[in-house]
Amino acid sequence: MKNDFDGLREKLTEVSFPSVYMFKFIVKSDLKKIAQIESLFHSERAQITRKESSKGAFVSISVKEVMLSADEIIEIYIQSSKIDGIIAL
After folding, report:
1. Is residue 1 part of a domain?
2. Calpha distance 41→6 (Å, rounded)
3. Which of 34, 37, 38, 87 could be cross-linked to 26 through a Cys-Cys bond (beta carbons 3.0 to 4.6 Å apart)?
């Protein structure tokens, strides 16, 4: 069975770690969901920016953080996929 993250893992083999990686998520404007996403990252190391959609129904969350390995990046995507209604870009 092919893992959902095999393609990403293959692309990340070209990256030398540690490296700054940017994550981008879209979620409904719900403080609980936003907090769940932000809790996946180290607040002292991560640069988190939020941008509301024009009607305020959704929030785009961009996070830049130094990642130590491809496995660390994939683990964040796995954990984020457990948040209902999240879109990871």
Report:
1. no
2. 22
3. 87
